[in-house]
Design brief:
The structure is a homodimer of 304-residue chains.
Chain A (H helix, E strand, L loop, with lengths): L2 E4 L3 E6 L4 E7 L1 H9 L5 E7 L5 H9 L2 E8 L6 E6 L6 E7 L19 E4 L4 H10 L5 E5 L2 H6 L1 H8 L4 E5 H8 L4 H10 L4 E5 L5 E5 L2 E5 L13 H16 L4 H18 L13 H14 L8
Parallel strand pairs in A: 1-4, 1-8, 2-6, 4-5, 8-9, 9-10, 10-11
Antiparallel strand pairs in A: 2-3, 6-7, 11-12, 12-13
Helix pairs in contact in A: 1-8, 3-5, 6-7, 8-9, 9-10
């Protein structure tokens, strides 16, 4: 099934307590695409500036990313600079340069309008709506957002949510969106806004799925050496949505397996800077870790 | 199998964003005993003051707690006063009055020395050692501790750890004890100090078990209305250790089921103030929720 992602392609500068990298490949659409192409071709819609290194273009193309929707605009590429706290979960943003991303206007070519699986990464909800208006009849729309849009573009965001099948947000965003810290209460309210399926990401605690099958908790696979958490959420989304596109199933069982696949993909993401871990990651490694995640939570029936 | 707990019996004053209670029954040994007696009789060793309400004595006795080891000393009962932050996870201690607990010296009567399962709640490691010297040949010793003893009584604590089968601590304590934030690295170091099994409690993220069976993650059962988190950790311990005493098994499989049982017990604890939820809780309710915890993490094999 055809898979479309609309989001950012960026150059990230990342500091961790141990190490740092400057101007490495980043952005939601980059992570999503690098992950998804492990099992599905991807159509990417994004914008980069004149300074965007050709090697990244080559990397993405060689992975099977359809880059005909990647605009190259006058100016510099979107840049993000951040520093991780010692717990490797919390982080502070040191600098955000929107650059060409500021005037990003996602235009889908006629060949992209039949896309069946659509992921709207974290971009302005007006742009998310515009993409939805351009796709003909998607089988599944998944979407991310952030505190900025929840606070400042709520009405537009609500229009997006009404047209979305799966919303992926973190626990703080769920609270901001609903006024409830309690995840069960927040989830019930979000699902009334439109998305029948809600994924609440909780960092190293894992991610929860709320759907007609009830609640499912995909733990985060414990990693001995976390190098760089950047992109873990977008990698999770890339894993989850590409898995659903691959299986062509949307049952509660498939959704749970997609959550596990996404969680495992996220656990590989943090093992290296940028999306470097995906340069060598194999399907077999992913499947082995999916089984290990099963072992992590397996227990026999409790009786007395 | 005979089960012994040595710890605190206290009067707690608790503030939450919604409500408050003053001078209600608390303390590690109270929670542990109230939980354990759901399935096993318990021998309790602790101290209270002259002011300790008779109704609590009656409550514990009627549940099947053997109170012959409960000393009543001159002075006031140990008191703790705390306030929970809006996330209902973080909390600040407003006041601690050790009172009679300051000169607590756990003396085991001859009838207690054959205790087979022993839980050393969070008390001074010198007292934990003293208890270990008084029990003849325990089949299993589990133990809790806190940042104060890790920082200030490390040498004594290490003597305790060398004689303990299961250590239960939270993630911050594991970091303090080993210098590693990473749970896998911290766990490997703690297990070298003595305890073959380590439980790291992570609040609403659940608890992890590290033993010869590998790593097991018991998620926290999601609760719609958290009333008071006080005692959840001691309730977890009470559930886990009493389950092991009940099954008479110490296999990795039994340990995992004990973790699930403990996690579910902890999820009931937070549904009311003090240990009030245990006044009505039935074994059937616990078993139903253990099955629900299985459903929460159940997924079919991920294939591609």
């Amino acid at each position: 099934m055809s898979l479309l992602v609309v989001g950012s392609v960026a150059l990230d500068s990342v500091e961790t307590p141990q190490d740092r990298r400057d101007d490495v490949l980043g952005g939601s659409a980059s992570f999503f695409s690098a992950v998804a192409t492990l099992i599905r071709p991807v159509r990417l819609v994004a914008v980069v500036g004149q300074d965007f290194p050709e090697e990244h273009i080559t990397f993405l193309r060689e992975r099977g990313v359809d880059l005909s929707g990647l605009q190259r605009a006058e100016g510099r590429t979107f840049r993000w600079k951040g520093r991780y706290l010692p717990d490797m979960v919390g982080r502070e943003t040191l600098e955000t340069q929107l650059n060409v991303f500021e005037s990003f206007d996602p235009k889908l070519s006629p060949g992209y309008r039949d896309s069946e699986f659509v992921f709207l990464a974290n971009i302005h909800p007006v742009l998310q709506l515009s993409v939805l208006d351009q796709v003909a009849k998607p089988a599944l729309v998944a979407c991310d957002t952030m505190n900025l849009w929840i606070n400042e573009e709520r009405a537009t965001l609500e229009q997006v949510l009404a047209r979305v099948d799966i919303l992926l947000i973190n626990d703080e965003e769920a609270q901001l969106l609903t006024g409830h810290r309690n995840l069960l209460k927040a989830a019930a309210l979000v699902r009334k806004m439109g998305p029948g399926r809600l994924v609440i990401k909780r960092g190293d605690a894992g991610a929860l799925l709320f759907d007609e099958g009830g609640v499912f908790w995909a733990p985060a696979f414990p990693i001995e050496s976390v190098v760089d958490p950047t992109g873990a959420g977008d990698s999770f989304a890339g894993g989850m949505v590409s898995y659903l596109a691959h299986t062509r199933e949307q049952t509660p069982s498939a959704l749970r397996r997609a959550m596990v696949y996404g969680s495992v993909i996220g656990s590989f993401c943090v093992e290296d800077f940028s999306l470097d871990r995906f340069r060598t990651l194999t399907k077999d490694e992913v499947l082995v870790r999916c089984r290990a995640l099963g072992d992590l939570v397996r227990f026999e029936e409790v009786t007395l």
